[in-house]
Amino acid sequence: MTSEAATLNKIESNWKLYVSLGEKIKDQDTRAAVAALCDSLFDRLATCPGSTRKDYIGSFPGGLVWYSLEVLKIMKELNKLYDANIPTDDLIIAGLFHNIGKIGSENEAYYLKTDDWHEKRGMYYEINPRLSSGQLTTRSLWWLNRFKVQLSEDAMNAIASLQHINQMHSSELYNAPVLTMILQQAVRAVCVMNNQDKVTSILET
User: Fold this and answer.
1) How many C-beta atoms lie closer than 10 Å to residue 151's C-beta?
2) For residue 149, what are the contacts with CB-CB under 8 A and spacing of at least 6?
């Protein structure tokens, strides 16, 4: 199997898992809204990278979905560890869609492929200069609202908190609502486990 075929197979398998997890949402209206989002954004979301550089997390086609699946997996483990009893719907929505803003706007992709010179130096993508300025967390919440995905207050606050993930002190994090704490811990854990040499926040790359 060629590397290109292997990449396509991985993208496809990760996407099937991503969609199947969305189908586990208990609230019927929210589940339908998530299905509509996945169906409409399939081409963009399934292949979207997760970051710009080789030494960051998920800097490959399908990297965003792969990263989101990893975050959700850790969130589920932390939920059990802390006996937090976070609703399944909140875990799935916060885990899978907190970074969906990385697909960009309705008309512009967030990431653009770089030229050969940059790629050989590990800079695989650049951030699209044509996009309006704004926080990724805001764009993620916009996409969820665009498809009428109902968010609980805890899920909304957890996603919004990632705007300040690198500025929150430990005392702030551990006094935050439990879903916020678990989402932030999961994001950090994915970065640590997949990049021991240079821990870089996926939210800022």
Assistant:
1) 20
2) 30, 33, 34, 37, 93, 97
125 DSSP β-pair partners: 113
- Record the pTM: 0.89
**Residue located via tokens 């699209």:** 128
CA dihedral 161, 164, 165, 168 (to 10 degrees): -100
- The answer to whether residue 205 is domain-embedded is no
Is 118 inside any structural domain?
no
Q: Are 137 and 159 in contact (CB under 8 A)?
A: yes
How many domains is the chain partitioned into structurally? 1
Token readout for 89 is 């719907």
What is the extent of the structural domain holding 25? 3-51+62-111+132-196
Nearest partner of 92 among 6, 150, 43, judged by Cα: 150
pLDDT, one tens digit per residue, over 59-107 is: 999 999 999 999 999 999 999 999 999 999 999 999 999 999 999 999 9
* CA–CA distance, 196 with 33 (Å, rounded to integer): 37
Residue 186 lies in a domain: yes
34 CB burial (10 A radius; 0-12, 13-18, 19+): buried
